[in-house]
Amino acid sequence: MNKIIVFDLDSTLLNDYGEVSQYTSKVLTKLKNQGHILVVNTARSYPFAMNIIDFIKPDYSIVNGGAQIVDKNGKNIFLKPIEHQYV
Question: Crossing angle, helix 22-33 and helix 46-56, to 10 degrees?
Answer without folding.
Answer: 70
